[in-house]
Amino acid sequence: MIYLDNAATTMNKPQAVIDAVCGAMTSFGGPGRGSHQAALDASLAVFEARQAVSGLLGAWGAGSVSFALNATMALNIAIDGLLPAGGVAVTTAASHNSVLRPLNRARDERGCQVRVAAILPDGSLDWESYERALVGASLVVATHASNVTGDVYDIERMAAFARKADALFVLDAAQTAGAWAFSASGIGADVVCFTGHKSLYGPQGTGGLCVRPGLDIAPLVEGGSGVHSFDERHPRFMPEALEAGTANAHGLAGLAAGCCWLAERGVADVQAHIEGLVTRFLEGVADIDGVKVLGGGSGQRCGIVAVNVGDADSGEIADRLAQGWDVCVRPGAHCAPLMHTALGTQQQGVVRFSFGAMNSQWDCDDALSALRDIACP
């Protein structure tokens, strides 16, 4: 199998991640729910996961990291907790439905205004549109990289514009955390949302948000916290403020192992490896008649290349790659409808090849060979 669907989830995990999850499954009790050794071991694993995530993403320390099921839940927490009723929110057409749908719910249920900065047909951000949208805004929620085309956006510039407009800046780093070197505390963001099951090489069901110190986010979910049990409402101090119920200590042990594996290898080295594969793939695609590459106008890509073959439906191409060559990719709309409107691919969708740290140049070459056979039979 040639697995090139890493933008959805990384299937091939470091052995350390597998070992950490298996070990946790046979030894952990409830984190924060007792003083016996099994509970303490689980609590320590959760704390070590906070430390590992904060260190890898350059956040504000372990106490700034609250865990959630994934980036989708983290974004819902940030949007629901920071956007006031009647407030003005700004996003871009590159956003995933994990951003668009919570914003649209705030529009429909709480009278908020949602403004969408345009993405140009080449996948780049329309900066004039973005600046205009910021007037009077209270919250900006923007993706670091398009999950459709891989275009990486200048988030430091975006955050600086938001700060000038007195708007909070929430970053969706689902596609870049672990695959693109950046510092959460250094880019000017107030919140960075991440997921564990993609380029952090953790299990599914892990993710969360890094929150700037001093920023108060109202909890989306309230319940057991293991502390202050007689309080009528959920604690408002970080990181417990945004976590309710028993933490996924088994999964977080794996997430910590994934972050440690990345730290040892170096995120900058991982980024360079992935960029090399993307460059190799783009150079190969350029020689295949009938294959169109989408996006790339931002000038930088994470590990994603989106293509179409003539007028063929993207699902048909992906099926042929899987059935004939055992190449795993993802077709369709990728939960990003406005990006497809910008690209003009609403009906056809795109075939997304997404590379990760575990892929090799042979994976790239074999995928190119399969694509060439399909496009030029």
Question: What is the end-to-end distance?
Answer: 22 Å
Multimeric state of these chains?
Answer: single chain
Contiguous uncertain segments of 5+ residues: none
Helical run tally = 11
- Please give the order of strands in the largest beta sheet: 2-8-7-6-5-3-4
Describe the sheet with the most strands. 7 strands, mixed
Strand content: 5-15%
The total beta strand count reads 12
What does this structure look like?
This protein has 377 residues and is of the alpha/beta class. Helix content is 38%, strand content 14%. The chain contains eleven helices and twelve strands. The chain has helices at 15-25, 37-57, 71-82, 97-110, 127-133, 155-164, 249-265, 267-285, 314-325, 337-343, 361-375, and strands spanning 2-3, 65-68, 88-92, 113-117, 139-143, 168-172, 191-195, 207-211, 291-294, 304-309, 327-328, 351-354. The protein has a seven-stranded mixed sheet with strand order 2-8-7-6-5-3-4, with helices on both faces. Strands 9-10-12 form a three-stranded antiparallel sheet. Helix 3 packs parallel to helix 4 (97-110) and helix 9 crosses helix 11 (361-375). The radius of gyration is 21 Å and the shape is globular. 53% of the residues are buried.
